[in-house]
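User: Need the bound-state model for S-adenosylmethionine:
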Amino acid sequence: AIEALLRRHGFHFSKSLGQNFLIDDEMLEEIVRASGASGRNVLEIGAGAGCLTNVLARSAKRVLAIEIDKNLIPVLETVLQPYKNVTLVQGDVLKVNLEQLAQECFGGEPFDVVANLPYYITTPIIMDLLENERHVDSITVMVQKEVAERMQARPKEKEYGALSIAVQYYCDAKLDMIVQPACFMPRPKVASAVITLKVLPERKVKTADEKLFFHLVKCAFGQRRKTLMNCLFHLGNLGFSKEELAELLEELGWDTRVRGEALGLEEFAALTDKIAQKKASI
Ligand code: SAM
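Assistant: Bound-state model below.
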């Protein structure tokens, strides 16, 4: 039915906007179930032809659906016409005033994010939602399977990196399901996964300086093959000599050849505090 509707509107899929629509009814129901969005406020990013929006609207309290593609708005208006609890906004999720839209739609109440994300901007969207503390309780999203693995990766694992740390700093992550390409129209080349990130009431670790913490994480993974000391020296812009950095790592009881990929959240927090303390004492 959705195919016929799209054809009637003369719609052509845009690869660059990550348009792979989820057309498997069971999978759509499963995602909404896994999100726990029943009776709650939901932000959907990238509503597409409204397949997921439609299922969400039936059980959520209110749905705020954002879609960038102007050509999909008439399709969405048709599909969502029976629902009074859906607000449709045409725009780029990274440019709209999400704060204001959420305030208008949800009246300041917390909300959940449920989305089959456009894969080309998965990380910026997730980072925006987490860093800006937008009243988000949970995020249930379809992403590339490999990205879901990165979000859950632990120190020393191949997929471990800055995204793993950011996600685990703010959330508990749980893999809900793997989704095969056949569930989409058109079919993507890679397998996908649905992951739920429950935003924690408090950060997983405490640090003296959150900005510095993320700066150090970014440096440590900036050049994976280099040691932490080299990354901090070349990318850190911290004002320390190599000798000072070596001393600092030794004070933490670490090998000076340690790599960023071996450090967990606690270690990055300890490193942050040590550096903040040294900088203050200069
Ligand atoms: N929710 C639909 C579904 O499950 O079938 C569509 C999902 S599709 C993977 C991603 C959708 O995000 C597309 O409709 C695309 O046009 C939209 N999109 C891409 N970039 C966007 C952006 N920057 N802001 C809002 N929507 C975007």
